[in-house]
Design goal:
The chain is an alpha/beta fold. It is built from 14 helices and 17 strands. Helix content is 37%, strand content 27%. The strands form two sheets. Strands 7, 8, 9, 10, 11, 12, 13, 14, 15, 16 and 17 form an eleven-stranded mixed beta sheet that branches. The chain has a six-stranded parallel beta sheet with strand order 3-2-1-4-5-6, with helices on both faces.
Length: 411
C-alpha cells in the first residue's frame, strides 16, 4: 500500500521533503511500513519549478488536491496566516490529514484547527513549527508525558542568534551583522518578525501549550527584540562575564505562568552561551528529569524537512492503523499569568550619564532596588542589580528618563 501526499509550497522546505523521500525511501518504507509518494505539489509558478516536474506533478489549483481521494496527507509549507488557514481548514473538512511547519498559524489559530481536526477524525501535526531541527514538540508530548515541567527557556530564533554571535564575537554592529545574515539566507529580506522577537513569541506560545497545557497568545506577555540593542551593552556584558542572547521563557512561578521573549544576559559558562550563529537550543527543567538541554539547527531546508517527514511518517502509521484524529498533545491545564510583582530577576541596566551617580543611587535606594555593581563608563552609567520585581523595574523606567537599556540576567 502506498500513501500519497501533497505539498502546498515547493520552496526550500518543500524541495527538502521531496529530496528526503527520493533519497531515503528504503528507510522510510521500513519505519512507516508503507511507501510514501508525493502525488502533487501546489505552486504559484510551475515554470519556476520545472526542474522538479519529472519528480512531482505540479499544480496551481488547490481543488485538484482537495478533490483527489487518493491523497491522504496534505503538507502545508507556504507559511503566513492566509491562505494557509483556509487551505488547512478545507483539507481537514475534506477528511485529509495535515502536517504544517507554520508557527504563526498554529500560535494564532492552533486551537481552532486542532478542534476541527479532532471533530473530523483527522491528524494535525506541527513539530516542525518550533526549532526546526529539534523534535521538541514530540519530545514534550511523549518523553515528558508523565513529568512536571517547571521551566522551558531557549534560543528559538536562528536569525537573531546569528546576528548576536556576529556582534559579540566579531565586533560587527547590528546593521552589518543583519546584512551578513541576509546574504547567507539566515534572515529574510524583511527580518521584522525575527529581530523584533515576534517569531520567537509565536514559538513560545506553542511551547507553553505543550509544556504547561495552557493556551496563551502573543498579546499576553512582553516581547522585546534585538533591533534596539546597542554595541555598548554587548561589550559591557562581555566585560562583566556575560553573553547576550534572545531568550524565550515560559516558567511556573508559584503556580502562575510567566512568559516573555527578551534579550538576556547569560553567564559565560552557561551551555546556551555557547550556542552560536543559526543554532537553536532549549533547556527544560522538570521534576523527574531535572535539567535537559536540546540543541540543533533551528531552520533551513534539511532540518525543517526532516521534522516535517517525522510527522508525515507518524500520520502514515495512523492512516494504516485507522487511528487518526488524536490531538498532537492532550495536555490541558489552566494557569493564570503572573503579575509584575511575582517575577524577580537580577538586571543589567544602562543609563545616560547626564544624571550623576549620586542622584541615580538615591533613586535606586528610594525604589528599594538593591545594587550589586554601579559604575560610570564613558557617557553611560552601568548598574547590575540584585533580584528585583518587574514592577520595580517598571517604576524605575517611569521615574528615570535616562534609563536606556534593561536586560534580565539568567543564572
Amino acid at each position: 500500500m502506498a500513501i500519497k501526499i501533497a505539498l502546498l509550497g515547493l520552496g526550500t522546505v518543500g524541495s527538502g521533503v521531496l529530496k528526503i523521500i527520493k533519497n531515503n525511501q528504503k528507510k522510510i518504507r521500513q519505519t512507516s511500513g508503507e511507501e510514501i509518494i508525493i502525488e502533487k505539489a501546489l505552486v504559484r509558478n510551475p515554470e519556476k519549478h520545472r526542474n522538479l516536474a519529472s519528480e512531482v506533478m505540479l499544480t496551481t489549483n488547490f481543488d485538484s488536491i482537495l478533490q483527489d481521494p487518493e491523497i491522504k496527507i496534505v503538507v502545508e509549507l507556504i507559511g503566513g496566516l492566509h491562505p494557509a488557514k483556509e487551505y488547512i481548514t478545507a483539507a481537514i473538512n475534506a477528511g485529509k490529514n495535515v502536517v504544517t511547519a507554520n508557527k504563526d498559524l498554529m500560535a494564532t489559530f492552533g486551537s481552532e484547527l486542532i478542534n476541527l481536526a479532532a471533530s473530523k477524525k483527522c491528524d494535525l501535526m506541527y513539530d516542525a513549527s518550533v526549532a526546526g531541527g529539534i523534535p521538541i514538540l514530540r519530545t514534550l508530548a511523549t518523553s515528558y508525558s508523565s513529568d512536571i515541567i517547571s521551566e522551558i527557556q531557549g534560543i528559538i530564533n536562528g536569525t537573531t542568534n546569528y546576528i548576536l554571535s556576529q556582534m559579540g564575537e566579531k565586533g560587527l554592529n547590528y546593521e552589518e551583522a543583519l546584512k551578513n545574515a541576509q546574504e547567507l539566507g539566515f534572515a529574510e529580506a524583511d527580518p521584522t518578525n525575527d529581530v523584533t522577537g515576534k517569531d520567537a513569541a509565536y514559538k513560545i506560545v506553542i511551547l507553553s501549550k505543550f509544556a504547561f497545557g495552557t493556551k496563551i497568545s502573543i498579546d499576553d506577555f512582553t516581547i522585546q527584540g534585538i533591533n534596539n540593542l546597542k554595541d555598548f551593552d554587548i561589550k559591557q556584558a562581555q566585560k562583566l562575564g556575560y553573553v547576550i542572547k534572545l531568550i524565550g521563557i515560559a516558567k511556573n512561578i508559584n503556580g502562575k505562568l510567566f512568559v516573555e521573549v527578551a534579550p538576556c544576559l547569560l553567564p559565560g559558562n552557561a551551555i546556551m552561551a555557547h550556542i552560536k550563529n543559526e543554532l537553536n537550543a532549549l533547556q527544560i527543567k522538570s521534576q523527574s528529569l531535572g535539567t535537559a538541554v536540546f540543541t540543533g539547527p533551528g531552520a533551513g531546508s534539511p532540518a525543517t524537512a526532516n521534522s516535517v517527514m517525522s510527522d508525515v511518517i507518524t500520520e502514515t502509521k495512523n492512516v494504516v492503523k485507522n487511528t487518526t484524529g488524536q490531538p498532537f498533545s492532550n495536555f490541558s491545564h489552566v494557569m493564570q499569568l503572573t503579575s509584575s510583582e511575582d517575577v524577580k530577576y537580577s538586571y543589567y541596566l544602562s543609563f545616560e550619564a547626564e544624571e550623576t551617580l549620586f542622584d541615580l543611587s538615591k533613586l535606586l535606594s528610594n525604589l528599594e532596588i538593591p545594587v550589586r555593581e554601579i559604575k560610570q563608563v564613558q557617557s553611560r552609567i552601568v548598574v547590575v542589580t540584585e533580584n528585583i520585581s518587574r514592577q520595580q523595574l517598571q517604576d524605575l523606567a517611569i521615574q528615570d528618563q535616562y534609563l536606556k537599556a534593561s536586560y534580565k540576567i539568567l543564572q
